[in-house]
Amino acid sequence: MSILDPVRPAEVRQLKRAQAAQQAADVLPAALQSSMEAASRALLQIQHPDGYWCGDLTADSTLESDYVLLQLWLYPPDGGSWNPPTRALIDRCCQSVLARQLPDGGWNIYPGGPSDVNASVKAYSALKIAGVDPNRPEMLRAKERILQLGGVQACNSYVRINLSLFGLYPRRFVPTVPPEMVLLPGDILYEMSSWTRTIVVPLSIVQAVGRQRQAPNGITLEEIFLPGKKPGPSQRDGLAILFHHLDKLLKIWEKRGPRNLRAKAIREAEHWILDRTRNTEGLGAIYPAMMYQIMAFESLGYPPDHPDLVEAIRHFDNLLVQRGDEFFFQPCWSPVWDTAIAAFALGEAGLADSASLTRAADWLLTKEIRRKGDWAVKRPNLEPSGWAFEFANEFYPDIDDTAMVLLAFVHAKASDPEAQQRSIRRAVNWLLGMQSRDGGWAAFDADNDWEILNKIPWADHNAMLDPTCPDITGRVLDALSRYGYRHGHP
After folding, report:
1. Could you report the per-residue pLDDT of 398-440, keeping only the tens digit for each?
2. What is the DSSP track for 295-323?
3. What is the rounded distance in angstroms from the CA atom of residue 194 to the CA atom of residue 280?
4. What SS3 class is residue 57?
């Protein structure tokens, strides 16, 4: 092309793109390196002296809402009025819940998500129980939105069961969770996901004992029941209808079944809980199970100073975060996960000093779980290993954390190399042993895929099973590949 030829627009655009790409190639590596170094310094500055990292784990408004109901359970009204010793915390819960109300009047369960009927009913119920005027604009908007979402009747079983414990939903229209399930032959209890079984066992005690708390000042929730909609469950298919009829039989059993068998089931359920709260931060070390654990102990008549009840409440209260204007409950602690990710990220970036990573590795080694937990029901001959998400949760190591710790150990070298190598061998063998028959890995258990359980009336929380999933399987494969496992290995 001659210098006298005109330059066409397409050629100008192409030239500008090439120049921009060259400028980016000149600038981006240095900018990326600078950002990585700044992030690494910030991360190292918040490492705990013991070697771990632990950030805040936030959730939706349902935790604050549930806290209000738990306080009503522990400190029932006196003569209609309610003056619990935790009044100041209840008020802060209400402020936190109201601050998260959406413009349409409801509450969501993830940032940017739509209003969720379960979260919205929980929020409205907690606010009203705590004494918020139902004629406040926020409450009127919430009522309208709840009715648009189908009313209280549209909530899942756990919301309706909770409300029934306070006389706010008809008991005959909520599913029965029988404690006798702990007496059933075989491993039926362990066909449920770990997070479900740690909820339903204590909840079965609460239901079976039959204690009920009255809402303060005789309040009801009649204004958020959708007129004309039956409060019973929706019948989805043949199996669901069958389980619905079985639930009716369970309600008859509750009233007329052998008292000695019911008493035995309650005792076994209590022992099941106690066995799983030794050397842990509460049952399952996670908010919902810990809440029902407290309610179960109280239902069983534990006095306020009973060591197990005191310990359960202490662990539960530790989930509360108060820092100035910040106020929220964490669903659990996350130090193992946070430490493994931080150490792996620093190691991959090549920017952490060996002393920091050694402290992290040494701390992680102390958290390897060396006892059998619920997972061993399906894998009785597998040598115990693995890591849990939290500081202490010995019955429930999980596959995802274990894989992440192994990834961290690629870079984080402990002060005792031989102990670390033994731990790595155990963890790798445990991961291999926890592979499900479909070839993938789940969160806590192997072969937890009995689909029929999804038809149980109280399985509508969409978490009854612990199926294998791509993200955990991918992380396990990544970890195994770092330790010599290649395509073609069984």
Report:
1. 999 999 999 999 999 999 999 999 999 999 999 999 999 999 9
2. HHHHHTT--TT-HHHHHHHHHHHTTEEEE
3. 15
4. coil
Q: Is 484 helix (H, G, I), strand (E, B) or coil?
A: coil
| R_g (Cα) of the chain, nearest Å | 27
How many CB atoms sit inside 10 A of residue 97's CB? 28
Using CA atoms, how far apart are residues 204 and 296, in angstroms rounded to an integer? 8
Residue 6 DSSP one-character state: P
CATH topology of domain 62-221+234-329: Glycosyltransferase (1.50.10)
Tokens 């008493």 correspond to 263
Burial 201-235 (b: 16+ CB within 10 A, else e): bbbbbbbbbeeebebbeebebeebbbeeeeeebee
Q: What CA–CA distance (Å, rounded) separates 442 from 445?
A: 6
Domain spans, the chain: 40-55+334-482, 62-221+234-329
Q: Which two tokens stand for residue 107?
A: 């509450």
Integer Cα distance of 107 and 118 in angstroms: 9
Report which residue type is found at 110. Y
CATH architecture of 40-55+334-482: Alpha/alpha barrel (1.50)
Residue with tokens 């309040």: 219
**What is this structure's pTM?**
0.91
The pLDDT-based confidence of 110 (bands split at 50, 70, 90) is very high
Report whether 365 contacts 59 (CB < 8 A).
no
User: CB–CB of 411/357 below 8 Å?
Assistant: yes
Query: Any idea which residues carry the catalytic annotation?
Result: 400
Q: Which two tokens stand for residue 202?
A: 């204590």
CATH fold match for the domains 40-55+334-482 and 62-221+234-329: yes
The length of the chain, given as a count of residues:
490
